[in-house]
User: Which sequence fits this backbone?
């Protein structure tokens, strides 16, 4: 029986030795490249072990993620992905709580409308950096090794490997001991490294850290 396309995808066969919070962060890092994620539900109960739900805002994002990541080796186990059944309790709950969140946000917005004018000004002030990564990230000549910085504290080798190993020519991720915010990623050629660099420049592993990527110095 085919399950109809759904905003929510159901993943199973996940390595259940991974801690719940780390698994959710890694799922977010992996799936957020396909579109905006509303929620990720993972439970450690016996019945729900090795399973997770990812709720996308757009249906197309869910479809794309399902196709692209089917069988992806997540913590060394191939993920099995399908659309969630619409009558799934977990998803109904997620959608229900999401609706409530939106209502609360709307109430807050109305309550804060006079103040919202003030909060917009800093946002304008912080807009120029978006247009000037070239100034902030002076690049080196092309190289098959990429240098990553501005990584969040919880970054680990697995997360970065999952992000970069979707690009042809990926070889390995090298973390720098004692420095959580930088890393090196090696490709087979500088052309392949360049493709990954352009695609993931500014990618946010967490909401606050936009990854900066340059070619490593030769």
Assistant:
């Amino acid at each position: 029986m085919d399950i109809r396309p759904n905003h929510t995808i159901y993943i199973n066969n996940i390595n259940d030795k991974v801690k719940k919070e780390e698994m959710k962060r890694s799922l977010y890092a992996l799936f957020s490249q396909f579109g905006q994620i509303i929620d990720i539900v993972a439970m450690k109960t016996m019945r729900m072990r090795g399973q997770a739900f990812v709720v996308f805002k757009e249906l197309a994002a869910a479809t794309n993620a399902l196709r692209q990541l089917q069988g992806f080796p997540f913590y060394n186990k191939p993920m099995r992905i399908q659309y969630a059944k619409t009558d799934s309790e977990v998803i109904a709950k997620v959608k229900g709580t999401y609706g409530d969140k939106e209502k609360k946000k709307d109430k807050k917005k109305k309550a804060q409308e006079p103040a919202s004018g003030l909060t917009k000004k800093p946002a304008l002030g912080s807009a120029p950096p978006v247009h000037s990564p070239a100034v902030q990230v002076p690049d080196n000549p092309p190289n098959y090794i990429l240098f990553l910085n501005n990584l969040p504290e919880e970054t680990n080798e697995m997360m970065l490997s999952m992000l970069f190993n979707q690009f042809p020519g990926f070889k390995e991720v090298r973390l720098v001991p004692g420095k959580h915010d930088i890393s090196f990623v090696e490709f087979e050629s500088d052309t392949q490294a360049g493709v990954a660099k352009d695609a993931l420049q500014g990618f946010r592993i967490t909401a606050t850290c936009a990854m900066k990527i340059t070619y490593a110095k030769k």
